[in-house]
Specification:
Blueprint: E1 5-8, E2 12-18, E3 21-29, H1 33-46, E4 52-59, E5 67-71, H2 81-91, E6 96-103, H3 110-126, E7 131-134, E8 137-144, H4 149-158, E9 162-168, E10 172-179, H5 183-193, E11 196-200
Antiparallel strand pairs: 1-7, 2-3, 3-6, 4-5, 4-6, 8-10, 8-11, 9-10
């Protein structure tokens, strides 16, 4: 069972220069392909005079990513997008997009030089990128007696969960979000307290 994976805690931008060309690397957190492509378009809008806007993203757990893609944006095939993605994978990051914006300096770098430059720019931004842990969670609804409410709240708080909603009637119904890693312990707690789990999302 996955215990989570590392994701960007915020966006960051770093710049390097290679033989007069400027490489501006931007890293940001994205959770969908649409969000990644929107960020790429934002980079194009902010740097309309740049020669290339190359990018790569990896969404989901980097060990088994739900989707990953890259684009060379006019650079020779495999010299930009793939090196960016390779560095992302090496860092073990998920839910991340890196866009590298290149202002051509008049000196051609060759395929090897381009590959190194795009990798170096990506390394420059990812090596300083603040990160946080993304922990998979699930939602559950439970029913209990009034006397059990405080014990449930205490358990949830002590296991990195959150009470999302609570309803009172003949008893107490509670919507809870808990880390996937805590599901087995939660089921054991509910069984010991004779608390009914209505559903798991």
């Amino acid at each position: 069972m996955s215990s989570g994976y590392t994701v960007p805690a915020q966006s960051l931008e770093r710049e390097i220069a290679v033989r007069r060309s400027r490489f501006i690397a931007r890293a940001s957190r994205v959770e969908t392909r649409a969000a990644a492509l929107a960020d790429v378009e934002q980079a194009r809008a902010e740097h309309p005079d740049a020669r290339h806007h190359c990018w790569a993203y990896l969404i989901g757990d980097p060990v088994s990513a739900s989707t990953a893609a890259s684009d060379d944006d006019g650079e020779p095939g495999g010299t930009a997008g793939r090196p960016i993605l390779n560095v992302i994978q090496h860092k073990g990051l998920g839910d991340v997009l890196v866009v590298v914006i290149r202002y051509f300096g008049g000196i051609k770098l060759g395929a090897g030089g381009l590959t190194r430059a795009y990798a170096q720019a990506t390394e420059a931004v990812l090596s300083e990128l603040p990160v946080t842990l993304h922990e998979p969670v699930c939602g559950v609804t439970v029913a209990m007696h009034f006397a059990q409410e405080q014990a449930m709240r205490h358990w949830v708080q002590g296991h990195r969960g959150e009470v999302d909603a609570i309803r009172y009637g003949e008893g107490v119904s509670m919507d809870i979000t808990i880390p996937v890693a805590e599901v087995d312990a939660f089921r054991a707690f509910c069984a010991a307290q004779s608390i009914t789990i209505h559903e798991t999302v």
